[in-house]
Amino acid sequence: MTTYKDAGVDLEAGDDAVDRIKPLVRQTFTPGVLTDIGAFGSFFELDLSGYERPVLVSSIDGVGTKVKVASRAGRYDTVGQDLVNHCVNDIAVGGAVPLYFLDYYATGTLQPAVAEAVVGGFATACAANECALVGGEIAEMPDVYPADAYDLAGCIVGLVEKDKILGPQRVSAGDVLIGLPSNGLHTNGYTLARTVLFGAYDVDDAPEALGGETVGEALLRVHRSYLAAIQALVAEELVHACAHITGGGLPGNLRRVVPEGCVAAVDYDAWTPGPLFDLIQTTGDVPTGDMRQTFNMGIGLVAVVAPDAADAAMETWRAMGEAPVRIGTVRPA
Questions:
Q1: So what's the pLDDT on residue 312?
Q2: Is this structure's pTM higher than 0.85?
Q3: In this predicted structure, what is the pLDDT of residue 10?
Q4: Which helix (H) or strand (E) holds 163?
Q5: What secondary structure letter does DSSP report for 224?
Q6: Beta strand spans in 108-165 (E)
Q7: Runs of H (alpha helix) within 95-226
Q8: Is domain 168-332 given the CATH code 3.30.830.10 in the classification?
């Protein structure tokens, strides 16, 4: 006799995991949520008051091999936050506010305590972004993943007024690029970072260059949410477009928010990337071009604003406790 558990799937562990995460998920529910965890589909009632031409905005993403750093460090409460904030930023740069989020958690062997920590991270970030965690999937797949491996994906849906959509259609030559700091690597470039750093250090090592922080701590810093910062500029009509600096770095992502016939000219001397980026480059002898195309280099968000709005935009962000920096301009190609 062969049972499902003998084949590698533990239904009791799955039930335990669901029981653990239910209270975490429920604390994120907003008034629009109509169904509890466990329904076949998640129902969400839209409140369109205040909108004339509402547009739904959606995005789906993962956190890449940052999950391997979390496993190596034995810490699982941050990668869920990373995923939510990454997805929130991807729709926020279009001017949208998030409505709800769904997750996918797949693993070789389901460990309920690990699943609880990961989903707890989802819940923490969803609550902070006023975004409901309405459902998800926990999949145990021993033939696909090694026993101690797991992967994450997330899908987000948000809402924006059509005539307030941010993007390259609003941008023109002469516009100013204003950056906000990242909190480290965020969720991109981890394959290169791991290859370099774990070839020289262990996860608990604290190189002098990191000022007392361990390699694991530096790599697991939570991906920032820029929702509030973006919406502050939107409210004052100070911004034309925003770029979330993810895979492709500043060159790849700024290209997505400037119109045809223009280029984003970045002054890389306008800020200091930070010790983690320097440690990666010096340890691995990584070419500067590779660094700039792989990592955010210390800038996680860029706002594109009109020249006469730049000072006001920077002051708005400073009043929020941010540290904005002018990093360049939009120029004719």
A1: 98
A2: yes
A3: 80
A4: none
A5: P
A6: 132-140, 150-161
A7: 112-128, 190-197, 215-219
A8: no
The residues, ordered by sequence, that sit 6+ positions from 277 with a Cβ below 8 Å of its Cβ are 291, 295, 297, 298
CA–CA gap between residue 155 and residue 101 (Å, rounded): 6
Residue boundaries of the structural domains of the chain: 4-164, 168-332
Q: Say if residues 309 and 248 touch (Cβ distance below 8 Å).
A: no
Distance CA 190, CA 185 (A): 8
Residue 167 pLDDT: 98
CA 93, CA 167: separation in Å to the nearest integer? 8
SS3 216: helix
Total number of residues shown for the chain: 333
What is the pLDDT, as a whole number, of residue 5? 84
Indicate if 168-332 has the same CATH topology as 4-164. no
- Decide yes or no: CATH 1.20.840.10 for domain 4-164: no
Contacts of 127 by beta carbon, 8 Å cutoff, 6+ apart: 27, 28
- Of the candidates 188, 181, 184, the residue with the CA atom closest to the CA atom of residue 302: 181
> Which pLDDT value is given to residue 300?
98
Which residues lie below 8 Å from residue 285, measured CB to CB, with a gap of 6+? none
Pair 42, 99: CB distance under 8 Å: no
HEC string for 31-77: CCECCCCCCCCCCECCCCCCCCCEEEEEEEEECCCHHHHHHHHCCCC
pLDDT means per 10 residues in the chain (333 residues)? 81 86 92 91 94 98 97 96 98 98 96 95 97 95 93 98 98 98 97 98 97 97 98 98 97 97 97 97 98 98 98 98 98 96
Q: Identify the pLDDT of residue 157.
A: 98
